[in-house]
Design a protein that fits this description.
Layout: H1 24-33, H2 55-67, H3 76-92, E1 102-109, E2 115-122, H4 136-151, E3 172-177, H5 183-192, E4 196-202, H6 207-216, H7 218-223, E5 227-232, E6 251-255, H8 263-274, E7 282-288, H9 294-306, E8 309-324, E9 330-342
Parallel strand pairs: 3-4, 3-6, 4-5, 6-7
Antiparallel strand pairs: 1-2, 7-9, 8-9
Helix pairs in contact: 1-3, 2-3, 4-5, 8-9
The structure holds S-adenosylmethionine.
């Protein structure tokens, strides 16, 4: 008795009660239904619709399973499986920071209106490793990347979905700063296909999962003839000697990179170090406009202008992060996206 036709939340008393000694199959079936789906920042229509339960009661129900001896089961193995599933459901309800490792699928549009899917692994979070999760501004930026390919003439590249021109050597060298789980950089690689190469970078603790996510998506990357590499690039370190003209990048991408007072300075000095000086050079950034970090956003803008960059295109948009608000719903995040080029070249 676990479905409601009228869409009303079900009560835990509709679930198999332990005093009735339910079978392990019945309990596992219910525990599967109680799985909390990881959010993908996408439209609600794409999410799997499952019966909803009154949530406060569910945690109590799960705890009762974990603390039960399940003495009527035939084997310790079955008990372990049920306890593990109940513990997993409980931690999924404890908020994103307490959630176990998870994988999410993100759907990214191409300019032809089709979409491709990227699967990203996110290890369980620790407070100081923000790059272990995918942030909403990277989702918004990935979804608008195809329009960048359309609007910047130098970026009109082969479209992997229509088997257009396949170039022998990548003509666009791109760099992503603070890639995290890699959503923006991987989207860029697939949209760029054989005509682009991208280097996804982050701090040492983040790069192993980033590299893992490249491997997870190797089929679609291979199909797109995309060239993707990963490595460490710490914005606080100024490379000596400075990169040569050939080592610089035509496109630099960054999503949600500002959350400490040092970040605007470090990020802009990294842009200045690595951005090529040509007419086609572009920096593409998407920043969430969180109140606490607005001074960093202003400082970033000023520092970009101070080194001679100017905005080519900009806009605002909103998305929903997967942190829960006080009411248990998703939190709306307002973001600012901007595309920059050298001002004397505009
Ligand atoms: C809020 S996360 C955003 C991750 C990803 N771009 C996204 O939007 O999902 C910020 C990222 O910047 C990286 N980061 C912070 N300081 C850095 C530094 N000094 N050098 C390189 N990366 C840094 C973090 O490790 C993290 O991956």
């Amino acid at each position: 008795m676990i479905t409601a036709d009228n869409g009303e939340p079900l009560h835990v008393l509709d679930l198999p009660q332990l005093y009735m000694k339910p079978s392990s199959q019945d309990l596992l079936k219910v525990l599967e239904i109680l799985t909390v789906q990881p959010k993908t920042f996408g439209s609600v229509a794409r999410d799997v619709v499952k019966p909803s339960f009154q949530s406060a009661e569910v945690s109590r129900y799960l705890t009762s399973i974990i603390s039960s001896s399940l003495a009527w089961f035939d084997s310790d193995e079955l008990r372990e499986v049920v306890w593990d599933a109940a513990a997993a459901r409980l931690s999924e309800r404890a908020g994103r920071t307490a959630m176990p490792a998870l994988s999410r699928v993100f759907n990214i549009p191409t300019s032809s209106g089709e979409e491709f899917a990227l699967t990203l692994h996110e290890p369980s979070l620790t407070a100081d490793n923000l790059g272990m999760k995918t942030w909403v501004s990277s989702y918004l930026l990935s979804r608008r990347l195809h329009s960048l390919f359309d609007s910047v003439p130098e970026l009109v590249l082969s479209d992997h979905t229509s088997n257009n021109t396949v170039m022998e050597k990548p003509s666009i060298r791109a760099l992503e700063l603070g890639s995290g789980t890699g959503l923006v950089g991987l989207s860029f690689a697939i949209l760029g296909g054989a005509a682009a190469s991208i280097y996804l970078t982050d701090l040492p603790a983040i790069v192993p999962n980033l590299a893992h996510n490249v491997t997870l998506n190797s089929d679609i990357l291979l199909k797109s003839n995309a060239e993707v590499n990963t490595g460490v690039l710490d914005w606080s370190v100024v490379p000596q000697p400075a990169p040569t003209k050939e080592e610089r990048y035509t496109v630099i991408l960054a999503a949600d990179p500002l959350y400490s007072p040092d970040h605007p300075k470090w990020l802009v000095q990294t842009v200045e170090t690595w951005l090529s000086r040509g007419l086609d050079a572009r920096v593409v950034v998407e920043l969430p406009l969180r109140d606490a970090y607005l001074p960093q956003v202003r400082e970033f803008r000023q520092r970009m202008e101070d080194i001679g960059l100017a905005i080519v295109e900009e806009g605002k948009e909103s998305g929903y992060d997967d942190w829960e608000g006080a009411d248990g719903g998703s939190v709306e995040v307002h973001c600012w996206w901007s595309v920059w080029g050298w001002s004397e070249q505009l």
